[in-house]
Fold each of these.
Amino acid sequence: MAIRVCSAQFSGFWEDPEKNLEKAEGFIAHAAKSGAHLICFPEQFATGWDPLSGKNVQDLTGNIITQLQNCAKANRIAVIGSLREAESPYPRNTSVTIGNNGRIISTYSKIHLFSPAKEDDYFIPGTGLGIFSLGLLTCGLAICYDLRFPELFRIYAKKGVQAVFVPSAWPASRIRHWEIFIQARAAENQMYVIGVNTTGTTPVDRYSGSSMAADPYGTIISRANEAEQLLFVDLNPADVTAARAALPVENDRKDALYHSLLTKK
C-alpha cells in the first residue's frame, strides 16, 4: 500500500523561528488535508542553515520542537523538522521525526559535518542512526552533506530501511551533484531517497530548491523547481521488495573481502 509523503520546499525568515514556525503551520495543515502521512522540512528550516551561528540553539523541549509536536498532533500527520540542538560544548545539527500523535519517534544528528564551511568546528557530529516506521514503510534520516557518503545509506539498507529522508540546505552552485547523489544512493541501495531542499538566498549562500525523490531503481519520480512549494509523492514498500528481488545485489556483495582489502598493507 502506497504512503503519501510531502516535501516542504521552504524559504524561511533568517534567524526568526517564530515566523518560520507560523509559516510551517500552514504547510503542515495543507499537507495533511492533501492526504500526506508525513511532511519533511529542510535542514534547520526554522532558522536557516548557518554553520557558524550560535543563535537559537534549543533542546528537544524547546519551542521549535514543541510547536511542531502540537501541529503534528492537531493535524494527525508525522513531521520531520530540524534544529541546532543544544549539547556541550557545541550544538548538534539534528533532525527530529514526530509521529502523528505528537510524540518524538526518531532523532538523527548529522554525522558528516560540512568541513569546507567549518561546520565541524562549531557542531558536534552525530554517532547514531535515525530509523522509524511510517505504516509498513521503514524509514531513515540523513542530512544534506551525508549524501556524499554512501556508507551511511548502505548501513540503512542492511538495517531494512526502505526510504531515507534527507533534509538539506544544498547550494545552487552544486545542484547537479544533488541530483546525482540522490539517484545513486537510491539505485545502489534499492530504496527511495527523498531530498528536501531549501530555496532562496541567505547570508550564507543561494539555494535553488530542486527537492526530489528517487525510486528504488534510481529514477526521479518527483521534482520541484526553484519556487517555494509542497511536493507530494507516493512511496510503496512493495516496490522496494520487488526491486531487491528482481536484482538481488545484496547476495553478491563481498563485505568481508572489502574489509580485508581496506586493511591490507
Amino acid sequence: MGIFGNSESKPPEAPPVPARPASPAPAEKERGVPATAAAAKPGTCIIASKTVIKGEITGDEDVIVEGNVEGQIRITRDLRVGANGVVKATVEAQSIIVSGELVGDCQASVRVEIQATGRLTGNLRAPKIVIAEGAMFRGNSDMSARKDDKKVVAL
C-alpha cells in the first residue's frame, strides 16, 4: 500500500508533443526569406534581397548573397549566390555556388558550381567545375593547380 492509499496509481501522462513542421516557419514565409537563407548554418553572413553592397567583402565565414554586391569578395569559406542574387565582383573563395547571376572572374580552392538557374560571365579557376544543364556560362575555365600550389623538387 502506498503512502497516499493507492499503490497502483500512475502519474498522469503528459499530452503528446506535436511534431515540428519541416517547412519554414510562417514568419519566414511572410518576410520572404529564401530557402537558401532559411537553411543557413549559424555563423553565415546573409546579404538580404533588398540590400546593396558596393566595395570589398573579406572574411572567414560562409556568405549567401540574395541581394546585390559590386566590388570584390575575398573569403576563406563558401560563397553562395542565391536565385535572386546579383554579384558583379572579382571573387576568391573556397567554393562558389551560383544560382543567380555572377559577373566577374572567380577563383575557388575547391570547386565552382553553376546550378541550372545560374548565370556566370567571367573567367573561372578551380580544380573542380560543375555546370548544370540549363546553366549559362560565358568565359574561360582553368582547372589546373595554382602556381603557388605546385611543389618544386630540387634534384
Amino acid sequence: MRILILIAVLSLILTAACAVDPKKESLSNYVNHDILAVASIEAVAFERYAAVTDKNYTTDEAVYIALRDEVIPVYKRFFHLLSQVRLEDEGVARVHGHYVKGSRRILKGFELKLHGIADKDNALIILGNERIDEGIREALVWRKEILALAEERGLRNLDRKKSKMEKFFYSMDEFVTDIGPTGQ
C-alpha cells in the first residue's frame, strides 16, 4: 500500500512539473499512466510471496500453494501488462527495458522455485531464488535510471533530502528489502 501512495505522490509531482516540455510530459505519462496502472498488481504478487517466505515461512507446501495459486498468476498478469507498454520516447523506453527484463527474471524465478519445490530439487529452488534476486537487482537499475532521467529532465527537486520522488524510490527499496533476500 505504501508503494501505491508513493506512486500517487510521484505522479502528482511529475504532472505539475511538465506543463509544456514534451520530454518531461513523456516521462510523467510513463510514471502516471503506465507504471501507476500496473504497480499495484506487482505489489500484490510481492505481498503474497512475502506472506509465505523469510520470517513468514512455515512449510514448503505453503510456499508451493502460494506460488501456484496466487503469486505466479498475479505476477504473470503484471508482467503481461508491463510488457504491453509502448513508448515513443527512446530514453524512457530504454529505461523501461530494465523493468521488463527484471520482471521477466522474477517471474522465471518464481516458476523455477515452484518446480523445485514440486520436485524436491534444492538446486532448482536455489536457482529460482537467484533469478528472483537478479530480477530485483535489475528493477533497482530501473529505479536508479528513472531517477537520473527525471533529474536530467528537470523533474526532481534539487534538495534530495526533501525530494518526494527520492522518498518514493527509497520506500520501494525498503519494500524490496522486506521481501528478500530469497535464501542466498
